[in-house]
TrEMBL record:
Belongs to the aldehyde dehydrogenase family. Keywords: Oxidoreductase. Transmembrane segments: none annotated. This is Succinate semialdehyde dehydrogenase. It comes from Saccharophagus degradans (strain 2-40 / ATCC 43961 / DSM 17024). Residues 21-479 form the Aldehyde dehydrogenase domain.
């Protein structure tokens, strides 16, 4: 059952708490979604281990917060170096448990690592201020202090990068962490925790609890008074539950939740660029990304040309086991995901849409490989207009004016990412301002990087990850009035 890795120590068997790796006869299996084969068994932890993890993080925090910023930075940098030097193995682990193509997995490892590098640098830039006071014998001084123990709950779609994007700023700020990866993908997270240990990050600073009972572990994380902050990436439904649970102890929260990204092609757009951007942002991770294009709005005048080129480009996407060379689309994560995507397409077709599947993809039945599909003639009455597809299905709607495109794009409770293609500078400013989202891609869809603030508005959540703002959620500002000077 063991994977073929150059560094076999990256494959761990279960939770790490206070530096100790837990083993148990109570285990759960991790399956490769491409083959259905069991790739590992992992110790099944629950509420008791979650509680132990919180207490370990609290103890470790006493020392960690007192380390100089430079020391925390140096340790994060060492972790970053180890992640990069183990990137090939980490990518194999990721593809095996999650399914995304190996090249995408490698890109995720380097993407996640970039957050560790970024926050290693930002650790040295946590600054307070001296503010003018009302009286001449007073000074107002502010300092930034770590919030304390941070709980992080991460999803299966980016098991490495989402963990790195949460743990790195927490550690840079002087916080310690308890984290729970998704049960489908614990292996990448465990490997990351192992490398952190190897980098010299002290025991208890990063604690990882792997288990099948997410509500038991999440219950401890959200209700324990020693946890001061919760950071979550996942569905809006679970985010709402976690927020409710966190209310009793008034935790600081940041929520990176579901999206329903519009992708607008205006009649003055570069159509080839729009098709390329759409392919990249729709089919990344088989469509299982919160910033994936969900609704494609194309101006009536260019709809035929855009759709033709989109269908041609989709036909070229190779589907298969992500470990194989040249594969662009892997399997969906599980049977429930496959069923959800299938039902959305069936509902759209029952209401008058047309589903186009390329000849070369029609054999893809069974298993978890959903054929990349273009759905045309879509309307706002279809379920697919309101729901996050999380699958390789590109749904095309049409519009006839800028106002209509903006109204359609904003007609959703979600507000994570939005994209549009136009060469009219006035329109670029107008539409970018009008879209109710946290992130806008204009004539480009590669919006995610460690230097930019990632996050949403409306029911897509709040808080920003990455960028100079990415530390804010892990810090408290303390104001000190210095009198009698
Ligand atoms: N914004 C995003 O990036 C993501 C959005 N989604 C959206 O959500 C849909 C469903 O995906 P799904 O995997 O169910 O997403 P979830 O929101 O259920 O899972 C995300 C994380 O939350 C954990 N979790 C689930 N329930 C609880 C709970 N009660 N208390 C604490 N933690 C909990 C999960 O653990 P475990 O898996 O171990 O139960 C996982 O670690 C997708 O189709 C997609 O639309 C999904 C993932 C990421
Ligand atoms: O929540 C997600 O779906 C992961 C975000 C991917 C990204 O950072 O681009």
């Amino acid at each position: 059952m063991s994977l073929t890795l150059t560094n076999s120590k990256l494959q761990r068997q279960g939770s790490v708490i206070d530096g100790a790796w837990l083993q148990s006869s109570d285990e759960f299996v991790v399956e490769n979604p491409a083959t259905g084969q069991v790739v590992a068994t992992v110790a099944n932890a629950g509420a008791a281990e979650a509680e132990a993890a919180v207490l370990a993080a609290e103890r470790a925090g006493v020392q960690w917060r007192e380390f100089s910023a430079k020391k925390r930075s140096t340790l994060l940098k060492a972790w970053y170096e180890l992640v990069v030097s183990n990137a090939n193995d980490l990518a194999v682990l990721l593809t095996t448990e999650q399914g995304k193509p190996l090249a995408e997995a490698k890109a995720e490892i380097l993407y996640g690592a970039s957050y560790i590098e970024w926050f290693a640098e930002q650790a040295k830039r946590i600054e307070g201020a001296v503010i003018p006071a009302p009286a001449s014998n007073q000074r107002i001084v502010t300092v930034k202090q770590p919030v304390g123990v941070v709980a992080a709950i991460t999803p299966w779609n980016f098991p490495m990068a989402m963990l790195a994007r949460k743990i790195a700023p927490a550690l840079a700020a002087g916080c310690t962490v308890v984290a729970k990866p998704a049960k489908e993908t614990p292996l990448s997270a465990l490997a990351m925790a192992y490398l952190a240990q190897e980098a010299g990050i002290p025991p208890g600073v990063i604690n990882l609890v792997t288990g099948q009972d997410s509500s038991a572990i999440g219950g401890v994380f959200t209700q324990h008074p020693s946890v001061k902050k919760l950071t979550f990436t996942g569905s809006t439904a679970v985010g709402k539950t976690l927020l409710e649970q966190s209310a009793a102890t008034i935790k600081k929260c940041s929520m990176e939740l579901g999206g329903n990204a519009p992708f607008i092609v205006f009649d003055d757009a570069d159509i080839d660029a729009a098709v390329a951007g759409c392919i990249a942002a729709k089919f990344r991770n088989a469509g299982q990304t919160c910033v994936c294009v969900n609704r494609i709005f194309v101006h009536d005048k260019v709809k035929a040309a855009f759709t033709k080129k989109l269908v041609e480009a989709v036909a070229k996407l190779k589907v298969g086991d992500g470990i194989e060379e040249g594969v662009a689309i892997g399997p969906l994560i599980n049977a429930a995901a496959f069923k959800k995507v299938s039902e959305l397409v069936i509902d759209a077709c029952n209401k008058g849409a047309k589903a186009i599947v390329a000849e070369g993809h029609t054999h893809l039945n069974g298993a978890l490989f959903y054929p990349p599909t273009v759905v045309t003639e879509a309307t706002t009455q279809m379920d697919v207009f309101n729901e996050e597809i999380f699958g390789p299905v590109a749904v095309v709607y049409s519009f006839s004016s800028e106002e209509e495109a903006i109204a359609l794009a904003n007609n959703t409770p979600f507000g994570l990412a939005g994209y549009f293609y136009s060469r009219d500078i006035g329109r670029v400013w107008r539409v970018a301002s009008a879209l109710e989202v946290g992130m806008v891609g204009v004539n480009d869809t590669a919006i995610s990087n460690e230097m930019a603030p990632f996050g949403g508005v409306k029911e897509s959540g709040f808080g920003r990850e990455g960028s100079q703002m990415g530390l804010d959620d892990y810090l408290e500002t303390k104001y000190m009035l210095m009198g009698g000077l």
